[in-house]
C-alpha cells in the first residue's frame, strides 16, 4: 500500500506518523509547497520506523505520487481562533484545482481522502475537479464528521460508563456548527439509549444531552484556542479510513461525498453513514431520524448548499 499525503503541516505529518504506527502502508510520500518541510518531516518520521515496522517514508514532489493507492489531501491554511470552518473556504478553495490536476496526472487510479476544511465544501470541489479526469465521486471521500462521531460516542460512553465501541450513534450533516447529533437512533449494545441509561442508573435528561452536544460541537474551537490547531484526532480518523480502504473492511463511517440529493436538496456534499470498502464508498445508509433531527439536517444541508451555489455565481 502506497499512501501519499499532499500537505506536510501538522495534520499531514501527524497523519503520516499515525499511518506508520498503525502499520497501514509500506510506502508513504509527503509533499508540500515547502519542499524542505516535507523532506524534514519525512526524515523525522522515518527515524521512528525501526521501532515499528519496515516502511519507506520520503519527501518529494508530484512525480513521486506515481503508483499511489491513496492520496490524502491535507493542504490548506489553518483555522484561526474564532473562525468557522466555512469562513476558511475563501482562503483554501483557490489551491485545490491545481493540486487535483497535478496529483491525478501521476496517480489517476488512487482513492482520494480529503481533510482540508471546510471539508464538506472542499470535498465537493475536489470531486468536481477530479471528475474532469474520469474519477468517480465514490472514490473521493471527505473525513466529514468521522471525528465528531468519535467524540459523540466517547463522551456518551464516558457518561454511561461503557466502552465507546459499544455506543452506536452518528453525527451527520456539516462538519461544523450546524452538525446534527442523532440522539433518536443511539443504541448501546442493542438497547435504545434511554433503556440503557435506566439500566446503568444514569439520568439521560435534556441537560446532559445539551452538555454533550456542546462539547462535541465546540471541541475544535476549544482546542484551537488552547494550542492553535487540531491534528491528533483528525489524523487518527484518516488512519481509520485508510485502514478500511486498505483491508476492504466495509465499515460504516460518517464520511462526506457528493450526493444527488439529501433532505430534498440536490447536488450537495455532507456527512452521512456510508459503507466504505476497498473501492471507496459503496453505498449510503438511510436514516430514521426524529422530526426535529430531520429539520436540523435539512437546515445543515441548506447551509452547505448555499455556500456551494455561491461558488458558481
Strand and helix map with partners:
Elements: E1 2-6, H1 10-21, E2 27-31, H2 35-46, E3 56-60, E4 70-73, H3 89-92, H4 96-106, E5 111-114, H5 119-131, E6 140-142, H6 146-160, E7 167-168, E8 171-172, E9 180-181, E10 187-188, E11 191-192, H7 193-199, H8 206-217, H9 219-227, H10 232-246, E12 251-262, E13 265-277, E14 280-284, H11 291-312
Parallel strand pairs: 1-2, 1-4, 2-3, 4-5, 5-6
Antiparallel strand pairs: 7-10, 8-9, 10-11, 12-13, 13-14
What labels would you give this structure?
313 residues, alpha/beta, Rossmann fold, L-2-Hydroxyisocaproate Dehydrogenase, Chain A, domain 2, 2 domains, six-stranded parallel beta sheet, 11 helices, 14 strands, 42% helix, globular
Describe the 3D structure.
With 313 residues, the protein is of the alpha/beta class. It starts with a strand and ends with a helix. It has eleven helices and 14 strands.
In the CATH hierarchy, what is the class of the largest domain?
Answer: Alpha Beta
Q: Using only CA atoms, what is the Rg?
A: 19 Å
Major beta sheet, strand line-up: 3-2-1-4-5-6
Question: CATH homologous superfamily name of the largest domain?
Answer: Lactate dehydrogenase/glycoside hydrolase, family 4, C-terminal
Biggest beta sheet summary: 6 strands, parallel
Average of per-residue pLDDT values: 93
Structural class of the secondary structure composition? alpha/beta
> Helical percent range?
40-55%
Amino acid at each position: 500500500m502506497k499512501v501519499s499525503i499532499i500537505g506536510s503541516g501538522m495534520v499531514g505529518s501527524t497523519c503520516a506518523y499515525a499511518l506508520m504506527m498503525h502499520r497501514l502502508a509500506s510506502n508513504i510520500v509527503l509533499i508540500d509547497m515547502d519542499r524542505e518541510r516535507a523532506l524534514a518531516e519525512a526524515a523525522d518520521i522515518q527515524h521512528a520506523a525501526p521501532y515499528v515496522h519496515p516502511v519507506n517514508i520520503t519527501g518529494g514532489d508530484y512525480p513521486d505520487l506515481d503508483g499511489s493507492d491513496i492520496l490524502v489531501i491535507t493542504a490548506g491554511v489553518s483555522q484561526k481562533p474564532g473562525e468557522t470552518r466555512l469562513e476558511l473556504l475563501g482562503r483554501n478553495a483557490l489551491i485545490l484545482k491545481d493540486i487535483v490536476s497535478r496529483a491525478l496526472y501521476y496517480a489517476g487510479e488512487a482513492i482520494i481522502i480529503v481533510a482540508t476544511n471546510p471539508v464538506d465544501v472542499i470535498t465537493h470541489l475536489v470531486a468536481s475537479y477530479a471528475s474532469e479526469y474520469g474519477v468517480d465521486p465514490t472514490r473521493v471521500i471527505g473525513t466529514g464528521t468521522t471525528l465528531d462521531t468519535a467524540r459523540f460516542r466517547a463522551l456518551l460512553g464516558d457518561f454511561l460508563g461503557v466502552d465507546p465501541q459499544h455506543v452506536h450513534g452518528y453525527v451527520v450533516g456539516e462538519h461544523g456548527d450546524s452538525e446534527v447529533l442523532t440522539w433518536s437512533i443511539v443504541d448501546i449494545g442493542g438497547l435504545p439509549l434511554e433503556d440503557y441509561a435506566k439500566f446503568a442508573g444514569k439520568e439521560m435528561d435534556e441537560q446532559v444531552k445539551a452538555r454533550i452536544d456542546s462539547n462535541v460541537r465546540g471541541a475544535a474551537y476549544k482546542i484551537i484556542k488552547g494550542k492553535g490547531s487540531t491534528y491528533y484526532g483528525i489524523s487518527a480518523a484518516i488512519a481509520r479510513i485508510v485502514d478500511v480502504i486498505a483491508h476492504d473492511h466495509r465499515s460504516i463511517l460518517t464520511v462526506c461525498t457528493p450526493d444527488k440529493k439529501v433532505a430534498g436538496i440536490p447536488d450537495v456534499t455532507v456527512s452521512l453513514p456510508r459503507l466504505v470498502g476497498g473501492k471507496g464508498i459503496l453505498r449510503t445508509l438511510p436514516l430514521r431520524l426524529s422530526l426535529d433531527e430531520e429539520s436540523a439536517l435539512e437546515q445543515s444541508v441548506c447551509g452547505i448548499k448555499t455556500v456551494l451555489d455561491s461558488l458558481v455565481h
